[in-house]
Amino acid sequence: MAVSHCSLKNASYVEREDPDLPVCVEQTVLVWIPLGFLWLCSPWNLMSLCRRSRVNTKHRTKLYLCKQIVVLLLFLTAIGGLIVTLLEDFSPNSSGEKISAVYYTNPVLFAVTWILVLLCQDGVRRKERAVDSASLFLFWLLLVLCDIFPFQTLLREALKQTHGNVRDVPRFFLFYTSFGLEVIALILSALADIPPEAKELVKKNPEAGAVFLSRITFHWFNSMVVKGYKKTLVQEDMWELNEVESTAYISQHFNHHMQYELGQARIRYQKKLKVKLIKSRGKGVEEASPSNGLGKGVSQDVLMMEEKGKKEDEKKKKKKGETKEETNYPNSWLVTTLYKTFKWILIESAFFKLLQDLLAFVSPQLLKLMISFTQDKSSYAWEGYLYAVLLLVVALLQSLFLQQYFQRCFVLGMKVRTALMAALYKKVLVMSNDNRKESTVGETVNLMSADAQRFNDVTNFIHLLWSCPLQIIVSIVFLWMELGPSTLAGIAVMVLMVPVNGLLANKAKEIQTENMKSKDKRLKIMNEMLNGIKVLKLFAWEPSFQTQVEDIRGEELKVMRKFAYLTSVSTFIASCAPALVSLATFAVFVGVSSDNILTAEKAFTSISLFNLLRSPLSMLPMLIASIVQTAVSKKRLEKFLGGNDLDGDIVHHDPSFNSAVSICDGFFAWEKDSDPLLKNVSLDIKPGGLVAVVGAVGSGKSSLLSALLGEMHSTKGFINIQGSIAFVPQQAWIQNATLRDNILFGSRYEDKRYQDVIEACALGPDLKLLSAGDLTEIGEKGINLSGGQKQRVSLARAAYSQADIFLLDDPLSAVDSHVGKHLFDKVIGPNGLLKDKTRILVTHGVSFLSYIDEVVVLVNGQISEVGSYQSLRASKGAFSEFLDAYAKEQDNQTHSEDDEHHDAEDLEFIPDTEDIQPDSPLEDAVSHMMKRESSIRRSQRGNTSSIRSRKSSSLRTPENTKKSQRLIEKETMETGQVKFSVCLQYVRAMGWGYTFWVLFIYLMQNVAFIGQNLWLSDWTNDAVEYYNQTYAPWKRDTRVGVFGALGMAQGLFVFLGTLLLAKAAVNASCILHSRLLNNILRVPMVFFDTTPVGRVLNRFAKDIFTIDEAIPQMFSSWIMYLLGVLGTLFFLCLTTPFFIIVIIPLAVIYFFVQRFYIATSRQLRRLESVSRSPIYSHFGETVSGLSVIRAYNHQERWLAIRLQFLGNLVVFFAALFAVVSRNSIDSGLVGLSISYALNVTLTLNLVVRLTSELETNIVAVERVSEYSELENEV
Fold first, then answer.
1. How many Å from the N-terminal Cα to the C-terminal Cα in the chain?
2. CA–CA separation, 565 and 571 (whole Å)
3. Angle, to 10 degrees, between the axis of helix 542-592 and the axis of helix 487-531?
4. Where are the membrane-spanning stretches (predicted)?
5. Contact present, 882 and 696 (Cβ < 8 Å)
6. b/e per residue, 1026-1063, with b = 16+ CB within 10 A?
7. Can you tell me the distance from the alpha carbon of 804 to that of 159, in angstroms, rounded to the nearest whole number?
8. Contact indicator for 845, 785 with CB cutoff of 8 Å
9. Which residues, in sequence order, are CB contacts of 733 under 8 Å at separation 6+?
10. Using an 8 Å Cβ cutoff, are 111 and 76 in contact?
């Protein structure tokens, strides 16, 4: 057999100028590798053959048929190979020599494999939404790569033969035929096989139709990048999300796991409480009264503990506070819920991270081989080329794995944030009153924005928790192999850095907490100011409030300065660390023994290993600090989400009852442990009945409706309701949407029903006055509607809903008396739109009571009387007293009509005799009322979007009103490149002097860095000079001293640069905020009426935060990395002049990729900023920005993979030129140039990322200056 001779021939095959693999290896190992891979992966593809498929299995695409035909042809070649062997073995002409077994086994193996491939390809077709198979593509790729070796072997052999005669023609022909078919199969497997039903989906979301190659290189994102480069992207250009990334899908899965985990946590919490209660009773501490529930006892206990804590010293107080806080709610369930919901994506990303980490350590080993290759002049040239190619392959694989890891982590972060935001939103809708009392709207928004974002940030880098220690351990092992025990000196320096970093991180956390307090304080007062801006302007209080905000801002800037100085110190330590570590290691290495001479191999392999160590060491403290912050957010979220919900079992829906609404012996309270507000309530309302609920102020009328809605705690009794409910609250709730959307409220538009409702609710005349009829946009909180109009819109919403039961909480109180009469007649009354529905009307309008079927009289939370209007009047009970009281109030009221802001009890009473005068039509009444209400407002508005410039509006033709008119304009958004003037504005705010010195100092730092490495390169040449000689101590000391001094100089320059930049950034922050505040308080009132508060607040919150923290940090990193890249490229051109040939085309490609990327990235960031504003204005729109942010994350991966490819080419060419010019260049410079090039991949990536981040973050300056330049009041 051929295999037996394999090992003997191995050496001779490789040790020559034109190396080759033995034939036996080509026919065994290289065949088994791809086949083994396919056999391992095939179950995954075959599973869908066993399941019932939901896709159209009858339809076969042309691509699928081509794939199957190619595999069938390959099957025939395998059978052909077997026949050739059999003929050779058993034909009469055969020589007696036994044919090798491999000629039997290989065709059989291939034949079975091709049948398996046919089945796998059919399995892929049956999979839902599968367009290709990654495992099949990789199989074809492996097969083609492995077949390249026999391909060139057979070709060489054929060329060596005289007259080109081929020894084994049938096999030669069969091999090349099958190789050609394999290449065709590889190309076909790289194409997308999109079924007809999925074509529409792929148009909306190209990711759904992306093949394996496209997915790993993010090629499917090209169309978005090109579109972003050609034109300005808008929200409509965003693609649809995949179903698994939609909020509904994520939320459903998260909720499923949350229910179980939270249930378990509640059980644990109850057990803990029981144990605590038993202990405290034993000590005689618990003295809760019988009426107090368990919850109240606990909360009192917490209060007592807190009071005691105050008296004790600070540390004890903190500890007690923390432990008590923990026991106050079900805890330790959120992280497990998140893990269970997203475990697969976590495991996938961990796998990619592990592969990337392990590959990172291959490069230093290849570098070591490369240096020894340049030193050993006798080694063959092909070895050098092999190392150069391997460096490229390793770097490429590393890039692919890293970007897959990042993409999964960013998607995971987005999903976590989405899940938390959706859970919070759902929680807000079902929170019990006890919980609602504890948390303000501001706190909830904060949970949604800040705390959910913290989880997003920490999940992006969660794998570093195990990856950093792994990288550190592997680096140390390799360093030990290079330098032996002297590695310990470097490790000791690193270990010493950890507590210093920990101390700084702790201090930074304290400062950050202080900073957040100032920020919260400032935003709170800004929110109050913006919401009450009308009053502020009326009393000319702007200067005093401005001073208040400026004072708080002053405190904030003081803290920021402290933080900046601290950052400078930690940056100094971080930049000194690598220099100190390598200095300590090399100094100990050469100092321990005079035999230890630093060679180029040792020095540069160690340097590249130290470079690998730098990242995990700097990331670990940051990650720990981030986890500490997230732990605080976790507590806050667990407390909020773990709170009690409204009891869903309070209201029953039993169809066996005859009545529409039935309450039996009901006792209802707003809080679990408080005394009931409604006592002994029993009520029975027949379907289709009209019932009025009357009573004095505070008698519990609105509470009764809340009880029917299930919003109060039921301590006794039960409620049964049959059918759906519509509710009209006392204070109308209006959305920031069009008037039509407010009425439809998610229902389908039906013209006839809609027109009937409009007419019945007296909205017809209003629509004529509104600039765009029912398509006019209503501002925040219904700012452009009067109180009466809001109430009628609210009533129209209920009337349109077609519910079975209508709960009407005094809807006629805010409208004019004539309009009230009309609404009662046309909507609520016996002949109104809702005449066949069950209506419960809370009212003070006594004139309507005679038309009502049943009147319920409430006194002090109890039903005192129920009956018809006449019977109750005759009984002379509580109802008569109520009537007398309101008659007197009516007599005392003046007839002058008040402003539209009525208090709930300050309402009109119309005597029975009063009716609408025949000569005063309803339209006039409504119009008069609207004109009167609008005249009070400051309405000198020239813009057409205001609905209050009404002189000619009533005469508009229907065509004019058809087009939707917006009151709240879309948020303006700059397009194209960030103007240079914006950058100049920021630099000017920083100060020109500061900017010059910062640039100069960073340049000096870079010079020191290059100097240090050149010195090291020169140092390694001593190994050749002092070969087999004693190393002179003076020489050793000089080498170590200069190396150390240059390292420290770098640190010092970085420290000075960061310090100056920090001072400059604080200056800029101060100036930009002052300008913004000064201007915003002096813009006309019309601006605030047409701009949501959230939009203005967004400038003071997100944009100022970006200017304060993100821009300075990025600016400093950007300068450092940019100069680093330029220094590296300069050095590479210096050592290997060939490099200049490559650097020019690479720079051109790099520039275009960057321009392409930045155009799209910048616009996506602007879109994200704009889509974030509604989060501050309204919870419901929180998920609107998700598709943009998701697109933004894919965008980054798209860029990274292309840049890393360019960086990998730099490494490849650096290695290639080192091989080409190995006779004219010393090994020290080879080591230095390749280790520089290895570093350039990452740095290049960072420079472009930071350039785009900086450009997209400068948008904050642009947005702030936009509001700083608004036209002021005259």
1. 101
2. 10
3. 170
4. 29-48, 69-87, 99-119, 131-152, 172-194, 350-373, 385-406, 461-481, 487-506, 563-592, 994-1015, 1040-1062, 1138-1158, 1199-1221, 1227-1248
5. yes
6. eeeeebeeeebeebbebbbebbbbbbbbbbbbbbbbbb
7. 92
8. no
9. 794
10. no
Phi, psi dihedral angles at 738 (to 5 degrees): -70, 165
Render the burial of 777-804: b for 16+ CB within 10 Å, e for the rest: bbbbebbbbbbbbbbbbbbbbbbbbebb
- The first and second tokens of residue 836, run together, are 């066949």
Q: Please choose, from the candidates 1074, 1068, 1070, 1073, the residue with its C-alpha nearest in 3D space to the C-alpha of residue 1111.
A: 1068
User: What is the reported pLDDT for 54?
Assistant: 59
Q: Are the C-beta atoms of residues 911 and 809 closer than 8 Å to each other? A: no
Q: Are the C-beta atoms of residues 602 and 482 closer than 8 Å to each other?
A: yes
- Give the number of C-alpha atoms closer than 13 A to the C-alpha of residue 594, restricted to the C-beta side: 9
Segment 1022-1030 long-range contacts (CB within 8 Å, at least 24 positions apart):
1022/597, 1022/598, 1023/597, 1023/598, 1023/599, 1023/600, 1024/1226, 1026/597, 1030/594
Alpha carbon distance 61, 69 (integer Å): 13
Q: What pLDDT is stored for residue 58 in this prediction?
A: 62
Predicted TM-score (pTM) of the model is 0.72
Mean pLDDT of all residues belonging to the chain: 77
Distance CA 46, CA 42 (A): 6
Residue 1241 exposure: Cα atoms within 13 Å on the Cβ side: 30
3-state helix, strand, coil split of the chain in percent (to 5) is 70, 5, 25
- Asked if 666 contacts 734 with a C-beta cutoff of 8 angstroms, the reply is no
Give CA separation, 921 vs 762, 906, 915, 1215, in Å. 12, 26, 12, 92
Burial annotation 987-1001 (CB, 10 A radius, 16+ → b, else e): eebbbeebbebbeeb
Q: How confident is the model at residue 949 (pLDDT cuts 50, 70, 90)?
A: very low
Instruction: Supply 147's token pair.
Output: 């077949």
Q: Exposed/middle/buried for 671, CB within 10 Å: 0-12, 13-18, 19+? A: middle
Q: Who's near 150: CB < 8 A, 6+ residues apart? A: 23, 26, 27, 30, 175
Sign of CA dihedral 670, 672, 675, 676: positive
Contact 1102, 1165 (CB under 8 A): no
Coil vs helix vs strand at 680: strand
pLDDT at 1166: 64
DSSP 1008-1040: HHHHHHHHHHHHHTHHHHTTTSPPPHHHHHHHH
Helix or strand run (H / E) with residue 789 = helix 787-800
Strands 805-809 and 690-695: unpaired
862 - beta bridge partners? 859
Pairs from 184-190 (Cβ < 8 Å, separation ≥ 24):
184/70, 185/67, 185/70, 185/71, 185/74, 185/140, 186/137, 186/140, 186/141, 186/143, 186/144, 188/63, 188/66, 188/67, 188/70, 189/67, 189/132, 189/133, 189/136, 189/137, 189/140, 190/132, 190/137
Amino acid identity, residue 30?
L
Q: Span 690-702, mean pLDDT? A: 87
pLDDT digits (tens, 9 = 90+) for 610-660: 777 777 877 777 787 788 878 888 888 988 888 877 777 778 888 888 888
DSSP codes of every residue in 223-276: HHHHHHHHS---GGGSPPPPGGGSHHHHHHHHHHHHHHHHHHHHHHHHHHHHHH
Q: What token pair was written down for 902?
A: 């009525």
Q: Above 50 in pLDDT, residue 960? A: no
Q: Is 100 exposed, middle or buried (0-12, 13-18, 19+ CB in 10 A)?
A: middle
Residue pLDDT, tens place only, 1155-1168: 777 777 767 766 76
Which residues are CB-contacts of 770 (< 8 A; sequence separation ≥ 6)?
A: 739, 776, 947, 953, 961, 965
Tens digits of residue pLDDT in 707-722: 888 888 888 888 888 8
- What one-letter code names the amino acid at 146? C
Q: How many CB atoms lie within 10 A of CB 834?
A: 23
Rg (CA), the chain: 39
In one-letter notation, the amino acid at residue 293 is G
